[in-house]
Amino acid sequence: MNAPAALHKLRIRKADLADPAECRRIEAYVRGHEAGTPFHLPQWLQAVETGCGQRGHMLLAERAGGLRGLLPLTEMHSPLFGRALVSSGFAVAGGTLVSNPRNATALANAGWDLAERLSCPEVELRGGALPKAWQKREGVYAGFTKMLAADEESELKAVPRKQRAEIRKAFENDLTIDTGRAERDRAAHYAVYAESVRNLGTPVFPRALFDAMLDSFGEEADILTVRHKGAPVASVLSFYFGGTVMPYWGGGTRAARHLRANERMYFALMNHARQRGCTRFDFGRSKIGTGPYSYKKNWGFEPAPLVYAGRTASGAAPREMNPNSPKYRMQVLLWKRLPLGIATRVGPWIAKGLG
């Protein structure tokens, strides 16, 4: 005898992220899904909430008691940039994660319903199975991923000749490598990262965000720092997930350029990740046509266009978050000239709303 039809109806509800058992169930689904990312995990939403005060929500799609999909959402609010629901906040990916593509639209529409209840005029889905009838947002970003070579020598040979020469120059300098998660690693990373983004003209995220990520992800996250005569000159916070290393928040001081410290950093991370059992290197996303986009291509990575989806309330304009926009040209130029101490104090207040 067939079960009642109601048992097979797709049901969407909000997850209780304060329930450890619920979070373990979600984590098992994400880790078992071929398209799962760290940005789909409860840990990511919780770290963003702890570090930046932006509330996390998780929508679950269930059928006959089984989990059939999910949508992580961060409720972004900023006095400068407005309100939005983003999947996932401060992430380069996220979006709907489903067992059947047909469930993506139902989850996304439930996300829109939640946005309306929260007075958020926009929802942005960063990848995943895209919902029907939503606006596609493409042609802005590309992702860069490739397999790691079998050993250090093969890795160096796999890098195009010009970039390989830069790595060899880095080996000639007095550079040392540290990896860890202790306070010394965290302080060095934040000092380097704060200077790096100030030099680019953008505000730095709160250090509390990085601490929360390291605490939430445990051994699946660490910091690699390059030092010159004991002083940190380049540093990156990376995640390790499903056999892939993801250098995520990284940068260098002004001295890093002539020392080739960034080249030393990323090559060291490739070897460090291999020793941890990783087989892929995910260089993250970059805006098409920018310096970082070209830099990653120089390493031998092929760009893969990223397609996002969005929905905006009638009469509302999508958030403009691109620092390369002419709208922010003057602000970027002024920010580059700020004393580092002031930029580091003021930046987190602005940046916590940029996710």
Automatic annotation (TrEMBL):
Gene3D superfamilies: 3.40.630.30. InterPro entries: Acyl_CoA_acyltransferase (IPR016181), BioF2-like_GNAT_dom (IPR038740), PEP-CTERM_FemAB-rel (IPR017469), PG_Glycine_Bridge_Synth (IPR050644). It comes from Parasphingopyxis marina. This is FemAB family PEP-CTERM system-associated protein. Residues 163-297 form the BioF2-like acetyltransferase domain. It comes from the Bacteria. PANTHER family: LIPID II:GLYCINE GLYCYLTRANSFERASE. NCBIfam families: pepcterm_femAB. Pfam families: Acetyltransf_6.
